[in-house]
Fold these 4 entries.
Entry 1:
Amino acid sequence: MASTGLLVVSNIKQLGKSLRSIEKYVNSLYIHLNVSAPSPAPAWSRLISQLYADSGSYVGTKVDLRVLLTPLKQQQQYMKLGRTVDIIFSDAHQPELCDRLRAALNISKPTIFLEDPSNTDLQLQLPATTEATNQKAYPNVVIGGTFDRIHIGHKIFLTQAVLRAHKRLVVGVTTPAMTKNKVLPELILPYEERIKQLREFLTDIDNTLQYDIVPIDDPFGPTASDPDLQLIVVSAETLRGAHKVNELRATKELCQLDIFTIDIVESKVNDGIHESKVSSSNTRIDMLGTRWRQPEARPNLPERPYIIGLTGGIAAGKSKMAERLGDMGAHVIDCDKVAHDVYEPGQACHEKIVKHFGKDILAGDGRIDRTKLGPRVFGNPQELQLLNSIVWPELMVEVNHRLANLRSGAAGPMPKIVVLEAAVLLKAGWETNCHEVWSMIVPPEEAVKRVMERNNLSEIEARNRLANQVNNADVVAKSHVIFSSQWAYEFTQLQAERAWQMLNKELDAKQHSNL
């Protein structure tokens, strides 16, 4: 299968048919528009936006589509592309054009013509509704955004800005200071990576511009100080922000920016969870319950049973997720319940705790009274650390004992998958005892609300309790699958089913390859 192709488009009405014919051959595709005559580059903006929007219906996200803008600006066939093109397709019989492209891109394979060879005179025409007022280009154009994992909406937005710039495009990319209130902010790529992906995409579609891509910590970024800017491109929902930019520039005696507004691309998912537009938030939501990161090799662990470490913050929904996975066939070991067992009289853990904290933490029956022990450690980091140093090793000894029993078959047939539910999994360093880590996250404010309601605590008490746990960003950094229970019960169930099916498919494939 060729990894990258180039499609010469002469008949926009055949785009859907062409893409469906090509998608099985490529995973990335450049679009070269075979235009009829030189025209101002912005004149093609509506057609290209529609092309991107329609492509989502034909190939979804399976093919990374990029419409080349350099030929529209320079009317030349030479292009410097970031990816090696393996093959050229054409929706009309244009052998001379395709041969020039093959030579320029050093492609040895013959062109694949998708239509009747007699179809030779087709070229793209400008839409009859193109207005002259939409065709103005500017030396210096500015845009801004998060640009997390470039999708169709981004491609339309970026293309509109590139078409309207003929010298320099300034792009402001938000840093964590501005993304903390986004949906699932912990899943947003680092801004350095987003900038890298942006630069690669922009230079690919048009290498004639100077790209100044900068991180921004506030809503204004370069627009607050750059005197050379003339145009700002915004979406309909951020138009108000563009007016605020001009208000600020007026106070600094900077020229007012012309404003070009594009429509948002509507999402086809209307479930009350996803946003109504194509967005990075929807992309992150769709990543829940999927493979976030490949597991590291664990040569120290037997292949069976396959151990999932399930963790997350207080009130994130770990226990309910463990229950879901148990219902689907996993054997669940609840480390909180195991901890209760190792606290029992006669256990080494019980003896060590009483020796340090004294007998006044005991109930009348000789068991450790957690309501007496708790106040001794919470709010006292040294004592809490000492308690953990006693309990965690003993708890893992007991967990390993139970795993050994499962492997021996003493408790019945060995389970295929074991879920080790542990709030302290990462703090205790137990992730190395698991084949991979699955985690539950909810927004901090949602966690505070849940802890207050569940434990009848004040807001201050709830925040103090949450302050002692691993934050969401650190949990995500060590996770291989991520869930979030901040939406409806059914959506969390869907995440669980997706992850369970994925893992079983992977394990079955691995077992089959070992036969």
Entry 2:
Amino acid sequence: MEEGTVTLFAEKLSNLILQEASVFGEVEGQIKLLRNELELMGLFLRDVDSKRVYEERVKAWVNQLRSATHEAEDVIDEFILKMDHRKRRLNTLKFLPTCVGMVDKLPFIHELDSRVKDINAKIGAIMANRSKYGLEDLTASSSSTADQAVSHKEKRAPVVEESDVVEIIDGAKKVKQMLMMKVETSTRSVVSIVGMGGLGKTTLAKNVYNQRDVQGPFDCKAWVYVSQEFRAREILLAIALQVMPLSDEEKKEMGEDELGKKLFGYLGEKKYLVVMDDVWSSEVWSRLQPHFPDQAKDGSIVLITTRNKEIALHATYSEEFIYELRHMNDVESWQLFLKKAFRGTDCDKMQRLASCYRGVRRLIVDTKEKTKQSWEKVLASIEWHLDQGPDSCMRILALSYNDLPFYLKSCFLYCGIFPEDSEIDAWDLIKLWMAEGFIQRRGKERLEDIAEEYMHELIHRSLIQVADRRLNGRVKSCRMHDLLRELAVKQAKDANFFKVHENMDSTFPISIRRLVIHQNLINHDISQCLHNSSSQLRTLVSFSGTIGKKSWGSLQEHIKLLTVLNLSEKEVGGHVLPRDIGQLIHLKFLCIKGFRSHVKLPSSIGGLVNLQSLDLGGNDCNIPHSIWNLKKLRHLECWNCKISSQSQINKCVNGYLGVEQLTNLQTLALKGGSWLEGDDLGKLIQLRSLELSKCSTSYLKTEFFESIAKLTVLEILNLSFTEGHTMKTLVNRLGSVWEKKNVTIDHHNKTLLPGLMPFSHHAYLYELSLNGMLEKLPKEIEFYPPKLLGLQLWRCKLRDDPMMILEKLPSLRILELWFNAYTGKKMVCSSGGFLQLERLKLFYLNELVELIVERGAMSSLKTLEIWRCDKMEKLPHGLLEQTNLEKLSLLGSSCHKSIKEIEEVGGEYWDKLRKIMC
């Protein structure tokens, strides 16, 4: 862990020496000496880490090194901050002679020289203590066979994995029997699974929940994670979102009682199965029980998993319907260990390690496949953990953490900042790792790609789990098992890596580098817990609430070296950032998540010269044009925000500012505006994701579409044209653009998308969304991205059946048609079409009367959703012939007549329909 801290700071110093040599001046020699000492420290710490040295003297010595490193980093960053303020001040006094500037700089140089010399002396003394206190002998006597961590791993393409479920055969059979018995009762019932953390409660529940014959009798199903940090409204919302449609306003504004009543009313007419995973208190069931109708359709069931049998008895009333998971015996543990660690190959001397797991399935499943030698090393150190408490899960889990290479330890611990049972957005996590400096450069590789490999490695080691995947197989979100999160929080506390606000004692001097705020504690004066801190705050993360003007004022002295500012707003309100936020020149990550709240960014935002990521979520904001100054910006994700125009006076004084200056951009999400004029967008050739909303036709000129054509590494493209503007008028104007590309123009049929050029060169584009009026889709398949997996069409008002064209796309897996994307009455999916399609969504197609699915069409279809297609009275012809169909979701009067007819007749069609409808 400390090795990573030292190594990252040494790398930072090397970069500063190259980039800021003129700034350091005569102090450069001391800076290089500090860098050299840090590099030696890093090598020694790597040796300590690889040999698993846990002696208390070593831990105390490592703590001293960490403290000295943090002090050195503060000194360097404070100097850079002061020099930046000096530079800004001198820029306003350009008439002063150069000699005045040099004199003004001298006090800063002398102060830096003195402080760096002191730190070098301190580090020298700490390093000398290795011999004085016998630390070198301790490390030399440790096992020398440790595998060295290698930072460069072979790149692996992401794949969509199948669930690797542990075979808890007896438990699955018994729980299933309990459920089937309850299905026959006339009231709502509760079944519980009880066992200690790590035994496999969630695995067992999922095993049962995912079985088709279990799901069959129920009209709707939901799975929710509860956890210790229980919030009734969030649990009710999570259930409601899985069983019933909710508008954006309902999701945002409905309180617990109102939401509970709506859910109660909906479930009252359904036979439902709800799984509540990881319940920690009896209060959970007491609060939620009133919202589950007791007299719903016969046989509704709630399945609970918990560590506490008292909670199970409180909800279930009878031990007859409580299944208690037992520990596996040594033979079972050994068999599972062999399967997970050695893929069934025997390995002598390892059975002792398997028995150390005490039958905790989770610990064995989390085992990473290793060589025999690697496991012997783990076995050699396990006794140390067991001596501290042989029944301690944390000490067993600590082996997985200690086995991590140094560059992954910080990444793993950082996952602990998120609230328990959070579904962590993988993209946000990657950007945070980058901003914190955890990602080591490897030649010309993209930092994002390296970070993604780090994530894959943590997943392969089972330290984090995939929660959801994107269309292309990459990780969309992940989770952290509660035991592993506890481990991360404990290790972070020991290493002073981050601190959680509610767990801190502000009466003692402390050193806080990263502060995490859960719940609504941000309304307290945060500065109270920082006033005794011996170092500057680098990271401030809040998962609830806002920071008012008063709090900003009290925080100012503590956040001047801030690197990460992450505010997640869950309530309607707004954020006003301080006017001088531009002075936070070390800030790399600024995120204010929310939905349609107003965020006010001051013009000083243009001073955040090191900013890599700005994410305002769905908040509304008028972003100052000075944002174009931020040349290190890689991710600008503000899809509901617009950029203010640069005045002519400002252009004359400061020069033209435009999007083309942000050549490092990987992600861009903004409202359309005058910044789209010209061909500047086409210069952002590193763009992977582009989302433009509310684009007026006045900006959609030839240069705009030529720019889109140049962005050949795009993976995601979302274009939304201003409502009410037809693209018809653009065809003649843009015909010449197409002719340059040797594409045949049909001016009479007007088959073109709104001026877009073919996507044939966009080899990486897998997700495309178009929102705006079109007349016809291009018939030429070559027009479309060759590897398109997902397509959304919104408000296109297509007159001709789009299926005859789209069914020929060879890789299409998801197709969504929204809000009169098609205005015809009939759609036909012909035999042999849509061979890869897995999900089809038809939402609010007001004129659609009939959907025909010919035999052999959509053979891979798993999910069909038809919402508010109210003129469509009958189910799609041929639908029930689809053997892979698992889910049919209907809303409004869609197919109502057909459903009633099938129900009256009964038979196998009705049996199948009941199983897939939700």
Entry 3:
Amino acid sequence: MGLLGAEPPGPNGGRSPGFLGRQNKYVRMNGVVPPPEEHEGGEAVRAGRSRSSTRYVFACSVFASLNSVLLGYDVGVMSGCILFIQRDLHITEVQQEVLVGCLSFVSLLGSLAGGRTSDAVGRKRTIGLAAVVFQAGAVVMTLAPSFRVLMAGRLLAGVGIGFGVMIAPVYIAEISPAVSRGSFTSFPEIFINLGILLGYISNYVFSGLPDHVNWRVMLAVGIVPSVSIVFALLVIPESPRWLVVQGRAAEARAVLLRVTDSEEEADERLAEIEAAAASAASSGETVWRELSRPSPTIRRMLVTGLGIQCFQQITGIDALVYYSPTIFRDAGVTTESQLLLATVAVGFFKTAFIALAIVLIDRVGRKPLLYVSTVGMTVCLVLLAATLWLLAHGAVPKALGVAIAVVAVCGDVAFFSVGIGPVCWVTSSEIFPLRLRSQAAALGAAVNRVTSGAVAMSFLSVSRALSVAGAFTVFAAISALSVVFVHMFVPETKGKTLEEIELLFGDGEVEGERRGEVELGDAEHLVRKG
């Protein structure tokens, strides 16, 4: 005996006529479920589009990060160049500190100007401007006949680097989907590390040339990556969020269609961006006024964004990168070729582990990586400081001490690269609301550059006053404080859209309820992505 309404499908699309010709409210399953072939075909189309959009965002992220190679190369190559510049131009120790450290201070001017510039002319054009300014500075440095001209070129290059460091994470964050934004926004950091490694290799390769030629060739090689940015500008689109703010929603939608998996998702993201832009337009406050007199929510964002930028540098990473030959010489490495080769090893570890971070950041999250990074750096800095102190007092064999020092330095840069190195830029580019994002990111980059410059310009003097072991003891203590900072002030932002992250910094019961709703929505969004 059959079930009522389970008759074979009729010609009306799967429903069959029931009693007295009425339509049954039941249908046979084979009347509504599409054939397996069609289902599989639809999934294949969606999967193909997903792969295509991911490849496109990947390519845009790579091209937008090319300016970061310039910063990394300049940092890495200067660690070796300074040895030859000192002999060629006969500069003093103070001049060495100024030459090395001024880049960071000057780049903060570029970072601050970059925020307003990117809001005015667009993210894409700001990327191009950064490359042009750096190129000009690199040419001046290469041809410099004196220390003053060399400084002028370095100051100009610093401004270009400041533009590039600020704009790349913002641009990538604004075109990337939430589920992979962490990985893509980490690209500038891996390109910085790649640039550092290339700078170290350049030092080693060209060190055999005469002193008045080798450092000029090393600096000239840095012009090559900036030339490739001309091609990049022909490929990458403008940021959809900037286009919306400029009232060019149709162009923004066209970009979103290329960086999302479906038309529905593109429309959903466009609606979120338009809502955020409308909220920003309705606010009567200017950006800098809001940043200087922040609400409690914005204040928490600033503490997180500026704090993580400060801790990224004040733990001494640039001391290791800029002065690794000096540190290894203090540990007992004597020949110039050995010093530069050990420095290449540092660059290799730094680059290899940033690649690991890119794989993990959207899988395990930002905060677990920060814990591993800050704790690991603290341990390595304590080990390095202790080893250098023991070597200075002859308490350990020289060969063993040198080996431990090299391992400690490589371990510190590895832990830096797997966590706070890339996560710092990811976090500071994604936590601020649209109306403040570029200017707040610029402010964060400025803080990063100031602390970097302070470390680079004072390391030799502090080492002379406290010893190299004493300097790294201070860095170890600061690194321990960074663990506490991460625990107290850095939220997990994995998988959330830029608009949803704002809710993480809200307070009160209503904000907590909204936060729970956002997390549920994110879970549903991730299921759709999967």
Entry 4:
Amino acid sequence: MVFPIKWSKPPMARCQHLRRLLSSAAGAARPITAWRVPRTLDSASADSARIRELARLGRVREAREVFDAMPRRDIIAWNSMIFAYCNSGMPDDARSLAASISGGNLRTGTILLSGYSRLGRVRDARRVFDEMPARNTVAWNAMVNCYVKNGDINLARRLFDVMPSRDVTSWNTMLTGYCHSQQMVDARNLFEQMPERNLVSWTLMISGYVLIEQHGKAWGIFCTMHREGMPPDQPNLVSVLSAASHLENFDIVQSLQVLALKTGFERDVVIGTALLNAYTRDMSMLDTAMKFFDGMKERNEYTWSTMITALAHGGRIDSASDLYQRDPQKSIHSRTAMVTGLARCGRISDARVLFEQIPEPNVVSWNAMITGYMHNEMVDEAEELFNRMPFRNTISWAGMIAGYAQNGRSEEALVSLQTLHRNGMLPSLSSLTSSFFACSNIEALEAGKQMHSLALKVGCQFNTYVCNALITMYGKCRNMDFVRQVFNRMTAKDTVSWNSFITALVQNNLLEEARDTFDNMPSRDIVSWTTIISAYAQNEQEIEAVEIFRSLMHAHEVPNPPILTILLGVGGSLGAPKLGQQIHTVAIKLGMDSGLIVANALMSMYFKYGCADSLKVFDSMEERDIFTWNTIITGHAQHGLGREAIRVYQQMESAGVLPNEVTFVGLLHACSHSGLVDEGRQFFNSMSSDYGLTPLLEHYACMVDLLGRAGDVQGAEQFIYDMPIEPDTVIWSALLGACKIHKNVEIGRRAAEKLFAIEPSNTGNYVMLSNIYSSLGMWDEVAKVRKLMKEQGVNKEPGCSWMQIKNKMYSFVTGDEDHEQIEDIRATLQELYNSLKATGYVPDTEFVLHDIDEEQKESSLLYHSEKLAVAYGLLVTPKGMPIQIMKNLRICGDCHTFIKFVSHVTKREIDIRDGNRFHHLRNGICSCGDFW
């Protein structure tokens, strides 16, 4: 609803009447004799004002010099200097100064209390409050405000309830606490109980609803205020404009613009800037915002900087630069906005040139340039600039600490915090939370405990932001006892707190407790859903992840790109094309299918289905990153399309995209599965010679696989011995696999012995060695391997295949006897077996690991899981319909041959994704070329 506008400017007659009353009163009053104020007092007053001005500029040393030079000081001068220390984050110095005048007056105590409060030092603030010989309502309000600012709403309410007297500020302070901690139910109850409300009260409620993104309720409060006849003031209009900017209702913003005109704010530059902010909220309306900006009758430095910032954030840095050139003043705010914009879009050199042109950059400008360097991962340059700063505030230190932590230099972040502390400054909340993040990065538990102790010293251990960072840090450091302590002792928990706790539980493999916590959350946001869905997906409980996603959709929550990406990965892992297609449809409806992250996930998923739709997604992408190219190269490799993978790589080079380590893993994998030995060698050498990339274990493993598959088993073994790094299990396993293909007993035995020593519980290694022995009829050796497996407590993983028909998954295990249609499946298999033998199929019994007669071997081979799946697919699907099967292990040679014959006889397209790659079988021919 857009409300009707009734307010107007104050009537001129009323103003003239007020002037007459004041004039009459002045005429009737007796003349007042002027006091002769000594010159020293005039000087003291000027000096006090100078101290306060220097304090606001952060120049505390100069303020102290003025203070020390004063010949006489009154209480105003003392309080001014105490304020200067507190304003510069030095309340201990302020307190020492206050002690020189025996604590000063009520104003002195309130200044000190507020100084400690600003730094989150709640205990010190309370000590000052308790030591005050007398307290007025202002002091009580300051202490309540201290608890509020530091997130301890319960203590704030207790103190509020015992106040000897309250004014509207008292109520508004408590209201602020509830609104800032997002407890809007309590805020609304308190608001309704207020004996008196002013515009601040209404503005707080509007801002509170904006904070929890209930912009409709914020608008509703404003409309109620309007109905009660309360005209808005500047802060009130600014708050409701913030709400209106999120309502996606252009009419509301326009009606507020009209209201601003009718209530005398036509030339109010703050309101104009707020309206400009509302227009710039939607990047698609930047042209409208620019039109409004050009029509503004009054502009100040913030108006210019707002529009410059909006254009820069909208990716229109050239337009931002043009507007900056139009700015007649080119204030420090506009210059700083332009520096920030240039840095954000990667034009850091231009940003530095502009920064150097600022005649007297203030601390905000210095901080913006340092942040720009950190944003562009230029930590050394940020450090050099930081060391040159003439003055640093807590934001400067916080920016450096955060920059170090976010750029992988966590140790330096912690050293910076120590330096700050040694310089006599206590860290800000931002510095502390960044330090906890740094500890999380390097899992530095002991350093984290020291930071926690510092938080206790500062008195902000109950601050919500600090507690959330502590939960994350202790969770990463695998200390769940401390996680639970911090979480349980929190006086105010927001949604981030719950999400952090759930994440810590997931990281420590406590999935069941994480789910219970998720189910009992008082409210959830999209991060909550993302965390729990991701947890189940990562723990290979894909079905449960899908069910939670369905609950999300049922709750009418809108999934974000990360959730869609997770579900697309789940669909690919399960081999469930119907699920993948459904998620794709959801992405299209939400307009997220063209986003880079989702498009990459779609392409990866369709490759896992063996589906050509992956190429359609790739061709339709307007934006591609290195992950896009790596995905399509790896996808071609999985399907045995080595030449196509190389072609895509050449296309990537032509597009000017530099390959990374993952690119070369995909290329080498593609060459390995296509027998392209010479090409593989060229790519391996190109890594270091052309791109300066150091080959990793994965690349060496691909080379061993490449050489071994091509039949050069001895060369593969020698390659391992010539490696500059220690081979891992993947490399030895690749060599053992090659020995299995080419029946090389001696090298296979050596590779297996290495693997048994490194990972004695891995079943696959024993099975591969046993396969080598059984293929050569070495049954005594097979028995020894089987005995060794028994001694190690190792059991062979059963072969399992599964397929999706319509919307249901069907699974089969080797020798399956439990399937409801097993008799029909076996009959179909036997019929196929007989017909295929007549067309030339000969069972390859070397894949049987038992010393039994040939007939038994053939019978054993017949009931492998992939054969059962094929037979079931033939039974229940229409004639000519393609069959898609997933298998947990590498397909055996006999099954591969058998299914080739089936594809020829039945004229079915059969796709099998085994543990290594895809096999596309068409008319008796496999895409792998019998090379896998």
